[in-house]
Design goal:
The complex is a heterodimer of chains A (294) and B (295). About 3% of the residues of chain A have low confidence. By secondary structure, chain A is an alpha+beta fold. In chain A, helix 3 packs across helix 7 and helix 6 packs across helix 7. By secondary structure, chain B is α+β, with helices and mostly antiparallel strands. Chain B has two domains: 48 residues, no CATH class; 220 residues, Alpha-Beta Plaits, CATH 3.30.70.20. In chain B, the strands form five sheets. A five-stranded mixed β-sheet of chain B has the order 12-11-10-3-13. A two-stranded antiparallel ribbon of chain B has the order 1-2. The longest helix of chain B has 22 residues. The N and C termini of chain B lie far apart (79 Å). Classes of the chains: A alpha+beta (294), B alpha+beta (295).
C-alpha cells in the first residue's frame, strides 16, 4: 500500500516537473538584473545586427510572426510572451538557452547580449521606440563593370514624394560575387552626393575558368529594388582546376593500371609458365633419352 | 534457323519503332491539358507542345555519373560547435537514398577525445578522400573517384564482396543485407548512379554528397536539412562555401584557417574532403551519455 502511495507521489512529482518544464523559470536574483548598456539608437542598432545574424533564423522578422514552426514555437520579438519578460529574464534566457534555443553565453559577449535585450525592448509598448523602421522606398540601381580598371560603377536613385526619381546619396551598396550555391559578399560602398559610387574589385577574387565573375550589386535594406546582376565580367582570377585523378593512383582496373605493375605482373606470370615449360621439356628429354637407350 | 533469326530481328525493329511512336503524344491542335508544375501551380498547356520528359537512360546515367561536374571540386565543412544532435541530416539522407533505419550515409556520433575532455556530437559522412583506399580494392571498378572529388559507387557493377568496407578507415560504407526500404515503391525505376536509388540488395551503398542534387545546382540533402547551421558546402576551386541553414556564403580558405579546421585521421594520408571545425564555444550543451572508456 505504502509502495503504491509512493508511486503515485512520484508520478505526481514527475508530472509537476514536466508542467514546470513548459514554463521557463529564471532564478530570482537574475530576474532583477539591471541592463548596464544604455537604451539608445546605437545600442539598439547593434542589437538589431546581432539579432539578424543569430536569432532571425528561428524567431523571424520582428512583427511579422514568421518564426520557424518549432515546438515550443520561438515567439516573435513584438509578441506579449517575449515582452512579458523582465530585462534580466531576457538576458538569462539568451545566455543559457533551453532545448532548441542555443546558449549564447559562449558565443556573444555580455555587452552584446544586453544590446540584444535593448533591441527587443525597442518593441515594448511601454518604451519609446528609438529605431523606427521607415517603410521601404522604391529605388533604382544602375551598375556597370569597368573591366580594364577592375571597378564596379554604381548609380542609385530613389523615388521622391512626387513620384520623381532623385539622386540617392549616402546609401550603402553591397557588392557580391555569384558562387555555386550563393552570393559571396566582397565589399560595400557608400554612394556620394551625386548618387554614384565606385568599388575596386579585390585582385584575388576568383572567377570561372576564364576569370569571368557574375557580380551582384544590391542596395541595403529600406529600399525596394531588384539587385543588378552583371553577368560574366572579366574581373577575376581564372579558377584553377587542378587535375584530381592521376592514373597511377587509382589502379584497381586494367584501364588505370601502371606500366611497371603490368610489366612485372606479366613478367612473373610469363616466368612461371616458362619455368613449367622448361620442367616439362626436361621430363620429355629424359623420357626420350631413356627410350633411345632401350 | 537463319530465317527464324531474321524474323526475330524484324520483330525487334518493328517493336522498337512502335514503342517510339508511343512516346510521342498524339497531336490534335487546340486541345488543352491541365498539368501541375513542380512548384505546385496548375497550368494549361496545348497538347501539341507536350513532349515526354528527358530522362537519361541507365547507360547514359552511368557514363555521366563517372565524369562528374566539370571544373568543380566539392568540399564540406562541418562546424562541430553548432551540432546539437537534431539528426535532421540523417533523416533527410535516409529518405533521399532509400536507407533502412539502421543504415547511415551520415551518422551523428557522440565523441570524447580523452578522459577529461568535453564530449561533443560529430556528424560523420563519407570523407570523399582524394586518396581513397576503398576504390583501390574494388575488383570490378564499381566504386570510383570522380574528377569533381566525389567517390561514387555503381550498384549495377557491385558484386557485394565488401572489400571496400574493410578498406575504409572511416566506416563510411553500408551493405544492403536485406531488401532495401520502400523496395516496392521504387520497383522499375531507372537506377540513378548519383543517388544510389533504387538500392539493390547484396550491394554496397555510401554517402555521395547528393551528387544528383549537385547536378541540379542544389545543396546536398543533409546540408540543407540541418536546422542549426552545422554544414558548409561548396566548390574548393572557387574558394567559396555556403551554409545550408543561413544560406550565407563565405570564403572557404578563410573559414578553415580562422577556425583551425582539421580532417579525420589525417595521418593515414587519405586526404579527406570533409573538414571539421573544432567543438569550441558550443551553442548547445551536450546532452548525451558517454560511457567512460578512458579510465
Amino acid at each position: 500500500m505504502i509502495k503504491k502511495i509512493n508511486l503515485i507521489f512520484v508520478a505526481i512529482l514527475f508530472i509537476a516537473q514536466q508542467g514546470m518544464g513548459q514554463e521557463w523559470l529564471v532564478p530570482e536574483d537574475q530576474k532583477t538584473l539591471k541592463n548596464p548598456t544604455e537604451y539608445n539608437l546605437s545600442n539598439v542598432k547593434k542589437g538589431k545586427d546581432l539579432y539578424l545574424t543569430n536569432c532571425k533564423s528561428c524567431h523571424g522578422d520582428a512583427g511579422k510572426n514568421n518564426g520557424l514552426p518549432l515546438v515550443p514555437p520561438p515567439p516573435d520579438v513584438t509578441s506579449d510572451i517575449m515582452q512579458a519578460n523582465t530585462e534580466g529574464e531576457l538576458f538569462y534566457k539568451i545566455t543559457n538557452g533551453r532545448g532548441g534555443m542555443p546558449q549564447f553565453g559562449s558565443t556573444i559577449s555580455e555587452d552584446d547580449r544586453w544590446r540584444l535585450v535593448n533591441y527587443i525592448r525597442n518593441y515594448n509598448p511601454a518604451n519609446e521606440p528609438v529605431l523606427v523602421e521607415a517603410p521601404p522606398q522604391k529605388a533604382k540601381l544602375l551598375a556597370s563593370v569597368n573591366e580594364t580598371e577592375k571597378k564596379v560603377e554604381v548609380f542609385a536613385e530613389v523615388e521622391g514624394n512626387d513620384g520623381k526619381f532623385l539622386v540617392l546619396a549616402n546609401a550603402s551598396v553591397s557588392i557580391s560575387a555569384k558562387k555555386a550555391f550563393g552570393n559571396l559578399p566582397i565589399g560595400e560602398v557608400l554612394t556620394n552626393a551625386e548618387g554614384r559610387a565606385e568599388y575596386a574589385i579585390p585582385k584575388d577574387l576568383i572567377g570561372d575558368e576564364q576569370g569571368l565573375v557574375n557580380v551582384v550589386v544590391s542596395l541595403g535594406e529600406g529600399f525596394v529594388t531588384d539587385p543588378v546582376i552583371l553577368d560574366a565580367a572579366k574581373v577575376g582570377q581564372p579558377k584553377q582546376v587542378p587535375k584530381l585523378i592521376k592514373k597511377e593512383v587509382l589502379w584497381s582496373t586494367n584501364e588505370n593500371v601502371q606500366t611497371w605493375l603490368l610489366l612485372s605482373y606479366l613478367g612473373a606470370v610469363g616466368g612461371a609458365w616458362l619455368a613449367i615449360a622448361y620442367v616439362v621439356f626436361q621430363i620429355f628429354k629424359i623420357w626420350r633419352v631413356g627410350k633411345q637407350q632401350e | 534457323m537463319k530465317t527464324l533469326g531474321s524474323i526475330g530481328a524484324a520483330g525487334v525493329v518493328g517493336g522498337s519503332s512502335f514503342l517510339s511512336s508511343c512516346s510521342k503524344v498524339q497531336t490534335t491542335s487546340g486541345d488543352k491539358i491541365r498539368l501541375l508544375t513542380s512548384s505546385g501551380e496548375l497550368v494549361e498547356v496545348d497538347k501539341e507542345q507536350l513532349k515526354p520528359a528527358d530522362m537519361p537512360s541507365l547507360t547514359e546515367n552511368q557514363k555521366r555519373g563517372r565524369k562528374g561536374l566539370p571544373g568543380r571540386s566539392w568540399v564540406m565543412v562541418i562546424d562541430l560547435s553548432k551540432c546539437r544532435n537534431a539528426r535532421e541530416c540523417m533523416k533527410g539522407c535516409q529518405n533521399h537514398h532509400q536507407l533502412r533505419p539502421e543504415q547511415h550515409h551520415i551518422n551523428v556520433l557522440q565523441m570524447q577525445d580523452a578522459e577529461h575532455t568535453a564530449p561533443y556530437y560529430m556528424p560523420k559522412p563519407c570523407q570523399h578522400c582524394d586518396n581513397p583506399p576503398c576504390t583501390k580494392v574494388c575488383p570490378v571498378n564499381a566504386t570510383f573517384k570522380r574528377e569533381d572529388g566525389i567517390v561514387l559507387i555503381d550498384n549495377e557493377r557491385c558484386i557485394g564482396c565488401r572489400f571496400c568496407i574493410a578498406a575504409c578507415p572511416y566506416s563510411a560504407r553500408v551493405f544492403n543485407w536485406f531488401e532495401p526500404r520502400d523496395a516496392e515503391k521504387y520497383e522499375g525505376v531507372t537506377y540513378n548512379i548519383e543517388a544510389n536509388v533504387p538500392q539493390k540488395k547484396g550491394t554496397i551503398s555510401k554517402c555521395l554528397f547528393s551528387a544528383d542534387r549537385l547536378r541540379d545546382g542544389k545543396l546536398p540533402t543533409c546540408v540543407s536539412s540541418c536546422p542549426n547551421g552545422v554544414y558548409w558546402f561548396g566548390d574548393r576551386n572557387e574558394n567559396a562555401v555556403t551554409n545550408g541553414t543561413t544560406k550565407e556564403t563565405t570564403s572557404f580558405s578563410k573559414l578553415i584557417k580562422e577556425n583551425a579546421a582539421y580532417t579525420l585521421m589525417e595521418e593515414l594520408g587519405t586526404k579527406p574532403r570533409v573538414y571539421y571545425l573544432p567543438p569550441k564555444d558550443r551553442a548547445f550543451p551536450f546532452q548525451g551519455e558517454i560511457e567512460d572508456h578512458h579510465s
